[in-house]
Amino acid sequence: MKLAAFALALAASPALAAPAHPAAEARALEIAKRAITFRSVAGPGNQTPQLAAYLKEQLVKGGFADADVTVTSIDDTAYLIARWRGADASAKPLVISGHIDVVEAKPADWRRDPFTAVVENGYLYGRGATDMKLDAALVTAALIELKRQGYQPRRDIVLEFSGDEETTMKTSAIIAKQFADAEMALNVDGGGGLLGEDGNPEYLTIGAAEKTYADFELTVTNPGGHSSAPRKANAIYQLSAALVRIGGYRFTPRLNAITKAYFEGAAARQTPALAAAFRAFAKDPTDKAAIETLASDPAYVGQIGTTCVATMLSGGHALNALPQRATANVNCRIFPGVKPAEVMAELRKVAADPAVEFKDVTEGSSPTDASPLRPDLMAAVKTALGKAYPGVPIFPAMSSGASDSMWFRSNGVPSYGVSPVFIKASDDFSHGLNERTPVANIAPAITYYLSLFTDLSK
Ligand SMILES: [Zn+2]
Fold this sequence. Notes:
By secondary structure, this protein is of the alpha+beta class. The protein has helices at 3-12, 22-37, 48-61, 133-148, 170-178, 235-247, 257-266, 272-283, 288-295, 340-351, 375-388, 405-410, 442-457, and strands spanning 69-74, 77-84, 94-99, 118-120, 123-125, 157-162, 184-195, 201-210, 212-221, 225-226, 307-315, 321-322, 325-334, 357-360, 394-399, 415-424, 436-438. Helix content is 34%, strand content 24%.
C-alpha cells in the first residue's frame, strides 16, 4: 500500500480516536523530534547526558520538583530518574522504564540524516523513532499532562531512562537495583502493537518474559606444525565438525503460560498453515508437524525453545602453518527457566569431542523467569487499550531479545513491556536503516498512557 493510502486508511479507521489531549500530543511530538537530534550513541561524542538534561528540563517545566529529577553521569553516558511522590509513602512505587541511548547510525548509509527528525507522509523518521525516543517522549508528555490535570497518585511514580540499554546495560542494572522494592516496572521499550499491512491495528502484545542471552566460546588447540606435513588432529577441522553437529541440533521445544497464550491468541491472524501450527503447538508442544513448521520460520523458531547459533569464527596464524588454535562464538537465546550452565553442558554433549573446550563468556546478562500475568496489570492494559483502540485484542508475549526488564525481573520485580505504539511488520527498522514510526500513534498512545498510569498508581 502506498503511504498516502495508508494514511487515509488510518484516518478512516474507527479505531482511532480524535485528538483528545492536543497539548500533550503536540508536546510528545516536539520532545520526540528534539530527542532524535541528540546523538545518544555509546562512544566518543555520546550525547546521552545532554539528552537526559533536556528531558529533565521538560519534566521540571511540566511540574516535577527540580530535586525529584536527577541526571547521573556514568562513563560516557547518563541516566535520568524522576520521582513523582504519591500520597501514601508506604505504597511501593510504580516504575516506568525506558532508555534514551540508541544504536549507532552511519549518516552515509541513510536516506535522511539519522539525527535530524523529519515528519513526512505520516511518519516520524530518525534514529530512535521506533527504539525508543518516541516512546520516551510519549510517557514524558503523558506524565506532564497528568500533572497539568492535577492528578495525585497514591503510590510514587518513578520515571527512569537508562543510558546504555543498547550496549553494556550498566546504568540499567544500577537503576533496577535501586528500585528492587517496586510494585512493578512498566517497560515502554517492550510490548507494542502490530499494524496490519492495511493500516488497521491487529493486536497488542504485552511483554511478560524474555529469553536469556548467552555467549559460549568454543576453542580447540593443537601443537600445530608445518602445513606440508598435515596430521589427523587439526584445530580447524575439529572445531568445524563440532559446529556442524551443533548447527544440526534442536533443543527440546518448550511452552510456558505466556507463549501458550500468545500462540492461542495470535493464531487467528496467521496464514492457515501457521495458524494450525500455533494451535497445535499450544495444545501439545511435542506435536512434530507443528514443531517443524514453527522451527523453519525465523520469526517463530525463537518462541518454541532455546536456540543457539554460531556467530563468530577465527583460527590459524599463518597461511602455511597447521592451526594451533581455532575459536568460535556460539550465541544462545535461552528459554525462561533454563539455566545457561545446562545449555552449555548440552552443547558440550552435542559437540561430542573432548578436544573442544567450552567457556561461558556472556557479559551483561542475567537469567530471568517470566513475570506472572497479574490480573491488575492485564485489566489496566485492557481498559487503557479499550479507550485508545476499542476492540483490539491483547496477547502476552515472550521477547527473544533482552531489554531492561531483565534487570527488574532478576531483582524480583515483575516487569511488563507495555508500549502502545503500533507499527507494520514491514516498517520495523529498529537498529537498522531509515527507522520510522507513524505519527498517528501519538494521540491514542497518550490516551492509553493516561489511563494506564492512573490505574496502576491510584
Ligand atoms: Zn530499545
